[in-house]
């Protein structure tokens, strides 16, 4: 089984529609894919309607959190999407995305970058606007070569010259809310240092004590030494370890299935979840 538990669509900041993402996941030879758009499950219905035979869909979201001034991305899997408290928090985060992005555009303009809100809104389309859309605008303007190059202190990284804050969850609250909605939590790319500051291992230990289920170890932003260190930390803390592409379509270089999750870990995630269940495509088999 090939299992990718972190992928984005145009419902947030990916370039594939949810339906295209399902077709591309099947084409990449995946057996299981999780749709984890930022702070939304808006793409789930379209993804489900397009789900091909042989591919299983895991509903999820990547929740925007902040701990002691450091951004934390919390992957939430198989929660009840209608649970009101978690739905309300997701809505608060989404509602703050547009004014936050407009603020960053203003800061870039003050730095002499000829970017406009109309350009960023065109790139975002119907998705929840975020930093990758602004980064794409910088690529279009020739300010940076790649989207990843925009996530530096010079531009959009946490604390960078054009960075602006938005409403974000406390990760301990996120764990509580996801658990109450029957879901499972995994700390996404916890040591992606090139994105900016990372929380210390002591904080990960505190999150584990509060009910965190796992950490994303195998990820494009973790080198081999980092993956080994995180695997050891997970073993010490009794956390699950996942691997995922963090696919964003053409917005990032990593392809679907470039990093995957062990089937036994996936099985444990599904066993722990009570809010929702994986859905096999028509003609597929339960896994």
Count of alpha and pi helical runs: 10
Which secondary-structure class do the elements indicate? alpha/beta
Helix content: 25-40%
Largest sheet: 8 strands, mixed
Number of DSSP strand runs: 8
> Averaged pLDDT, please?
94
Strand residues, percent: 15-25%
Sum up the overall morphology in one term. globular
Q: How is the topology of this model organized?
A:
Elements: E1 3-7, H1 18-27, E2 32-35, H2 44-49, E3 56-67, E4 70-77, H3 84-95, H4 97-110, H5 117-124, H6 131-140, H7 171-180, E5 184-187, H8 201-209, E6 214-218, H9 224-237, E7 240-243, H10 263-272, E8 279-280
Parallel strand pairs: 1-2, 2-3, 5-6, 6-7
Antiparallel strand pairs: 3-4, 3-8, 4-5
What do these coordinates show?
With 287 residues, this protein is of the alpha/beta class. Helix content is 36%, strand content 15%. Strands 1, 2, 3, 4, 5, 6, 7 and 8 form an eight-stranded mixed β-sheet that branches. The protein is globular, with a radius of gyration of 18 Å. The model is unreliable at 283-287 (pLDDT under 50).
């Amino acid at each position: 089984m090939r299992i990718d538990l972190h992928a984005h669509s145009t419902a947030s900041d990916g370039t594939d529609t949810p339906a295209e993402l399902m077709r591309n996941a099947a084409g990449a030879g995946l057996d299981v894919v999780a749709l984890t758009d930022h702070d939304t499950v808006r793409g789930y219905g379209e993804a489900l309607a397009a789900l091909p035979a042989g591919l299983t869909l895991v509903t999820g979201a990547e929740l925007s959190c902040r701990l002691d001034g450091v951004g934390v991305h919390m992957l939430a899997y198989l929660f009840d999407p209608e649970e009101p408290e978690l739905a309300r928090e997701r809505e608060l985060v989404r509602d703050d995305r547009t004014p936050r992005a407009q603020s960053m555009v203003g800061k870039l303009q003050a730095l002499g970058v000829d970017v406009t809100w109309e350009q960023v809104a065109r790139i975002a389309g119907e998705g929840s606007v975020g930093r990758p859309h602004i980064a794409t605008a910088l690529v279009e303007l020739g300010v940076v070569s790649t989207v990843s190059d925009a996530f530096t202190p010079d531009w959009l990284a946490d604390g960078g010259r054009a960075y602006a804050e938005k409403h974000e969850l406390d990760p301990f609250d996120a764990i509580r809310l996801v658990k109450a909605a029957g879901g499972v939590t995994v700390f996404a790319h916890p040591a992606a240092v090139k994105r900016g500051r990372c929380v210390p291992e002591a904080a990960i230990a505190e999150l584990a004590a509060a009910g965190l289920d796992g950490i994303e170890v195998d990820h494009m932003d973790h080198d081999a030494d980092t993956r080994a260190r995180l695997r050891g930390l997970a073993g010490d803390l009794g956390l699950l370890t996942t691997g995922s592409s963090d696919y964003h379509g053409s917005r990032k270089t990593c392809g679907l299935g470039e990093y995957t999750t062990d089937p036994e870990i996936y099985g444990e995630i599904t066993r722990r979840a009570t809010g929702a269940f994986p859905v096999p495509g028509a003609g597929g088999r339960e896994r």
